[in-house]
Each structure stands twice: as C-alpha cells, then as structure tokens.
Amino acid sequence: MDILQLLVSGLANGCIYGLIALGFVLIYKATEAINFAQGDMMMLGAFITLGLTNTGYMDLPFWIAVPLAIALMGVFGYLLDLIVIRRMFGEAQIAVVILTIALGFVMRFAAGTIFGHEPQSLETPYAGQDLRFGGVVLGVDEAVVVIATVALTVVLFLFFNRTKLGVAMQASSQNQLAAYYMGIPVRRVQSLIWGLAGVTATIAGVLYASKGSIDPSAGLLGIKAFAAAVIGGMGSLPGALLGGIIVGVIEPFASRYVAAGYSQIAPYLLLFLVLVFRPHGILAQVHRKKV
Amino acid sequence: MTTASMEAHIKDPDFVLRIDNLESFYGPIMAIRGVSLVVPEGRVVTVLGANGAGKSTLMKTISGVMDPQKGKIIYRGTNITGMAPERVVRAGIVHIPEGREVFPLLSLEDNLAMGAFTRSDGAKAVQEDLDMVFSYFPILKDRRHQQAGTLSGGQQQMLAIARGLMSRPKLMLLDEPSLGLSPLLVREILTIIRRLNREQGVTMLLVEQNAKAALDVADYGYVMDLGRIVIDGTAETLKRSKDVQEFYLGVQTDSQRGQKRWKQKKTWR
Ligand SMILES: Nc1ncnc2c1ncn2[C@@H]1O[C@H](COP(=O)(O)OP(=O)(O)OP(=O)(O)O)[C@@H](O)[C@H]1O
Ligand SMILES: [Mg+2]
C-alpha cells in the first residue's frame, strides 16, 4: 500500500517534470535551441493563475483563471520568440542558451517583485480532497495531475498528427529548408511553437502549484526536467514524458530507501547512465539532420 | 499593379516568367552574374550547365529562398523579386529542390499534405489533386502510410515532385530531378514531367546536368557557365550544336568517342 502511494506521488511529480520536459523538446526540435527558461515559464504560468484566482488577488473563478493564464502565457511565448529570440537568428547556439538563462532570471525577479518570495499555494476547488480505494488514499490533486497530463498528451498527439498546423510544425523541424519550399511560414511556425511551450509550461505550473506551493525560484525544477528530457531522448515528445515519469518515480523511492543526501542525486545518476549507455536517450528518433 | 509590372504584362503576354539581369550572392561570392531568360506559357524550358554554374542559385532566387542583389523577376506580369517563399508558392510557383528534401519522419501522405499547405480551396479540391497525383505516381499510393525517409531515392524524387504538384502550381522549378537515378528511371521521371506539362498545363523550368535527357523533353534550353547564360536555343538546335555538346554538356561527339575507344584499346593488356 505504502509502495502504491509512493508510486502515485512519484507519478504525479513525474508528469509535471514530463510536461516541462515537453517544452524543452518542442523548442529544441523546432529551433535547435535549448530554452533554459522553460522551468521559469512554468513558474510564471503558475503565478499568473494564482494572481487571477487567489483571494486577495483578482479572485476569478478557478476554471476561468486557468484558461486565461494558459492563453496569456501562450501569447507571451509567441511574443518572446517574435521580439527577443528571433533577433538571435544566425548567432551561435550558446548565445541563445545564455539569453534564455537570462530570461529565466528576469522572470524570477519579476515574479518575486510582484508576488513576494514566500511560497504560496494556488487555491483550487479540489484542494485537500482525497480519494479512497479500500485502504489506499489518493489526493485528488495528484489524480488531477495524472489525468490532466494524459489528456494533454492525447490533445497534443491529435494536434501534431491530425491538424495541418501540427503536421507543419513537425515538417518544419524535420527539414526547415523543405518547409520553406512548400510555402510554410517557418518563422511564424517557430513562434507558435514557443507559444505552445508557454501553454504546456502553464499547465505544468498550475498542476505543480495546486499540489504544493509555488515560489519564484520554483523554476529551478527545470534543471530536473531538462535531465528528464535528455533521458527520454531530446528529440522525442513521448520520450520527454517518459523521462519525466521515470525521474519522478525514482525520486520518492530513492529518498525512502537510499541514505539521505545521496537520494537527491538519483535522477542525475540515471541521466549519467543513460548518456553513457544510450547517448541519444531512451526514445531517440534517429534520423540524419538536415542543414 | 505597378506601372513597371503593367508594362511587363503588356510586353510579355505569354511569358510565365521573365528574368532580367539577375545577380545573386553568397556573402561576397557572386553566384549569378546577370542572368536574363524567359519561360513561355505551357512550355518546358531547361537550364543546363556544369557543377557550380549557378543553376540551383537561380532556382532559389526565383522561389524567394534567396534574395537577389540586382535584377528583376517578373511572374505573369507581377514583379516577384525578393518576395517571401510562402507568397511565391501562393502565387503559383513551386520549387522542387535538388536532392529531394522530403520530410523524413512524416508519412508520405503527410508529405503530400504539406505540399498543399498554402491552399485554402477546401479539402475536396485537395483530395481531387491527391487522386490526380497518385494517377501519375501509382507507387506512391501503395506506400502512402510509409515514412518518407524509408523510400528509395527514386521514390523520394517522385514524392518530391508529387508534393510540389499538391500546391497546384502554374510554374514548376525542377532542380536536377534525375540526380542519382538509374537511366531507366531518369527517362520515366522526365516522361512524367512532360505529361504533367501537357496534361495538367504546368509550365516547367527544368535544371539538369543530364543534358541529353533534358533536351529530349524540353522545348527550349539555356546553357549556364560561371553564373552566366552562355548559349540558348531551341532544344533541337542545342542538341545538334557540337559546341554545346563538347564544351558545356560533356556529351562526347563521335570523334571523341572514337578516340577514347582507341585509347582504351591501347592500354588494354
Ligand atoms: N551556400 C553556399 N554558400 C556559398 N557558396 C555557395 C553556396 N551554394 C552555392 N555556392 C556557390 O555558388 C556557385 C553556384 O552554385 P550552385 O549550387 O548554384 O551551382 P549548380 O549549378 O546548381 O551546381 P550543381 O550542378 O553542382 O548543383 C558555386 O560556385 C558554389 O560554390
Ligand atoms: Mg545545383
């Protein structure tokens, strides 16, 4: 029973890592840049939702605040690419990476200034409720995380495989030149992918803040999610989710069975092993990269 | 319409494409040095030339992937010089690039759907064109759920042409469709190109190194060398011209071939 609960809480955390990792992979596939502000976008999305719905802030109903925050962060991601990232076109990859690290700092600072540095919890309609199956007690918040992740995965799958824009996003990341030749507006598609990364980050942030609390440095979680993305195979969306879940599930077991202090390194140890034995990640999509 | 384009329209009523004194650079390297040519409506025009002559650069400049430094590209009376590729595709020009450039992880069907990306005339019209395309390339129909990256080179070339057709082009820019194909397949592909030209009314600008095969299907030809057009003429004239054959097309004339055979004999142990 105990193990089951560890598993569920690990799974719930893993889903959140997975959703942040998804953002890393989306942007990496589309632009070959790594957005180290992905974790901070998660944090920002959570704070925007909190600002819209918590009492003492704007006090909007939760189910209105969430879609609103998602939309705002989608626009934010889009504009971030349009106004900032695109100017780096043609610069070295490392310059883009450093820029995103700096953007992360800016977001952390902005959130700290507006919301303070104390952890706050997001007020949700289901806070504190439990589900009981026989002797097993599950938090509704954890169940919501898992259900929302599964739902989002299905939606993204359908989007990428059944819609023209989704297929065009895949096409642009597989062969950018050919996408230009087909009349796909590649630049706009890339901005839209940044927007999508803002959307997934916000969903991750809402789920994260609803089952614990959020503070401006929560985005540092992004490092763990980045490890998850690499474990799963940096080029693969299912791999990102899988990597996230693996990291999430390992953590509670490591902290239960491994001496404190060592348990924290479990995800990175795994990252190390994967990089040594399967350098392209677990679900790597191996295909030759076009220039 | 600008005055200039109006003028062009009146002057070239049946030229799909007219290029005036075009110059294109890669950084400091001048790859196109003042190229002028015309492509009449409904014809197959070929651009021949050795490696590095600037043929692909010419195509990229027409399709808007590259911007020219100088010169004009007039398409059906409109100045399209420096226009973004997506607008060029919408206007009816599609570029089938050298080396196929399919989307390797997408299914063949999704590749074709991306060919129709710019279209907004409804799913029914697109489906009709899909059927049309499959009638020219039946082999693609059988494999439509297969990943494009797993197709053979020849099949990928067919897919690249089919994908281009899905945009409903008026003018197709074909960059070395015969590259790396067996002689039999070269003939097949060029025959299909000719049929598409006759039956679907697509005007073709065909870049080739395989001069003989290209001149067999083309109406008119230009020969490029070092970024310039050096010779042009009807396909018949070019085929007969010994100069063209020896100096620009690398085709061996009878005397040369005789000499080569003689040399081979000499070194035969
Ligand atoms: N990306 C590039 N950067 C710099 N120079 C280039 C680039 N692409 C082509 N060139 C140069 O421009 C000139 C024309 O190249 P282009 O590709 O147009 O030739 P081509 O006629 O298509 O040759 P091929 O038959 O080999 O395809 C060549 O000298 C080539 O070296
Ligand atoms: Mg070429």
From TrEMBL, chain A:
It comes from the Bacteria. It is a multi-pass membrane protein. GO terms for molecular function: transmembrane transporter activity. One of its GO terms (cellular component) is plasma membrane. Pfam families: BPD_transp_2. It is found in: Cell membrane. InterPro entries: ABC_transp_permease (IPR001851), BCAA_transport_permease (IPR052157). Signal peptide: none annotated. One of its GO terms (biological process) is amino acid transport. The chain crosses the membrane at residues 6-28, 40-57, 63-84, 96-116, 136-160, 192-210, 225-250, 257-277. Keywords: Amino-acid transport, Cell membrane, Membrane, Transmembrane, Transmembrane helix, Transport. Belongs to the binding-protein-dependent transport system permease family. LivHM subfamily. This is Branched-chain amino acid ABC transporter permease. It comes from Oricola cellulosilytica.
